[in-house]
Amino acid sequence: MDYFDNLSHDWFGYTEIKIKDAGLNIFLNKKILIYGLGKSGLSTFNFLKKKADIYLYDDFQTKIKNLDIKKKLIRKKNISNINFDQIILSPGIDLNKCKLSKFLKKNYSKIFTDLDVFYSFYKNDCITITGTNGKSTTCQLMYEVLLNQKIDVRVVGNIGNPILSTKNIKKKTIFVVEASSYQLEYSKIFRSKYAAILNLSPDHIERHKTLNKYIKAKFKLLQNQLKGQFAFVKKDDLLIKKYIKFKKFNSKIIKINTKRFENFFNVKENIYFSSETNKENLSFVIEISKKLRLKKNLLIETIRNFNGLKYRQQIIFRKKYLTIINDSKSTTFSSSMGVLKANNNIYWLLGGIYKKGDKFNLPKEYFSNIKAFIYGKNKNFFNKKLKGKIECKNFDSLKNALTNVLKIIKKEKTIYKTILFSPCAASFDSFKNFEDRGFYFNKLINKYLNGK
After folding, report:
1. What is the model's pLDDT at position 206?
2. Average pLDDT of the chain?
């Protein structure tokens, strides 16, 4: 049976699909290959193993020890001999660089994601958040807002909880979904009643190849929506404005002015929302909450008490003359802009694996407020981007860079200072992930504060 009209083969995953029967479950009792056995792939396997005929494959399957999983593994040489109905691809699999690249391109029309599987089995209301920066924080705040309103809510997706690992789902359960471009790239049928694109700037170009393809992956979230559904976008984001100008959408587009709160909340009541980035995140939550008709007093209460997520512009120390911020999650220049604008006399620690196509667009008025302390193997990239703008010093490691900063600030006890760890780069040169990097920075700070 042919499930789709006008299915064009596009190896990068930007196919526009018209579904003949949105109620048809295309995964039930089918022969399915799940490719990629991280958290997403394993949760998909556990969800479907009694609902379909499942085969498993992973590029590193020789390292798998679990006997239940090993029984379902299929060898690469045998994959082309089986006529799979569907292929569930984990977000981390790059179609162009994986071991099954040729097979996947040949069978692209069969590729789906765990989001698609979820949508086939459940029609719960979803609030799905995507964008370049601020996704996790916005999702967490939205989740806490709904929880405080006594609503049965789950936060899932790229934030760390696979959507198919959710238990005890009821008809009124609401899902707050963090969706990355990697997930949206391969998704075909997932749609969300409420969708948001927070902002867009160059990111993951090494995977998507061009900025345009990255943007298209994000906008699949809006293109799949129906009439009567709602899309929230940042009003003055240049890339969003440009894309919307030439496209038509079925959902109602709500453009959010992220610089105006309409006296809804005074950010002085929670210093966490003093940065431009977190004000933007808050703006989206407020507008979505209005559409959901949530109780204003409980909404303000949640905002007032929100502490944010670890390693995302997290204030880990504050005293009279010193603030220390751990923003290890920062992997691009754009993700650091808000916090660079919001603080005074900044000693900025940055370095790691830079993102292809990344640009430093901080307004000139902030340059004199910042001193940069660059560490790691890619110092030349960061020096080139900051040359003639911000004073820079170079170090071989984060530890040595921080040691130098601490020596300087000891001499300036009566001047207000900010130590900002916002790397603007991926962490994989020295750390497992941004959490590992953030934890290490906290350890260094604790040693300093405890005089060790």
Report:
1. 67
2. 90
Say how far apart CA 47 and CA 188 lie, in whole Å: 19
- d(CA 40, CA 102) in angstroms, rounded, equals 23
Identify the band that residue 12 occupies on the pLDDT scale cut at 50, 70 and 90.
very low
Token reading at 388: 């003639």
Give 402's contacts (C-beta < 8 A, 6+ positions apart). 349, 373, 419, 421, 441, 444, 445, 448
Helices (H), 107-152: 114-121, 135-148
Residues 227 and 34: their CA atoms lie apart, in Å, by 32
Closest CA to 36 of 95, 108, 115, 121: 95
Residue partners of 65: CB distance under 8 A and separation at least 6: none
Q: In the chain, count H helices and then E strands.
A: 16, 18
Q: What is the pLDDT of residues 193-252, one digit of tens each?
A: 999 999 998 766 666 668 889 899 999 999 999 999 999 999 999 999 999 988 899 999
Length of the chain: 452
- Amino acid identity, residue 211? L
- Token reading at 293: 């008709």
**Residue whose entry in the numeric block shows the structure tokens 């479950």:** 25
What's the order of all strands across the beta sheet hosting 126-130? Answer: 153-157, 174-178, 126-130, 194-197, 230-234, 252-256
User: Are the beta carbons of 56 and 87 closer than 8 angstroms?
Assistant: no
Burial 252-291 (b: 16+ CB within 10 A, else e): eebebebeeeeebbeeeebebbbbbbbbbbbbbbbbbbee
Q: Write down the pTM of the prediction.
A: 0.85
Distance in angstroms (rounded) separating the CA atoms of residues 353 and 273 = 28
Q: Which residue has the tokens 């526009």?
A: 16
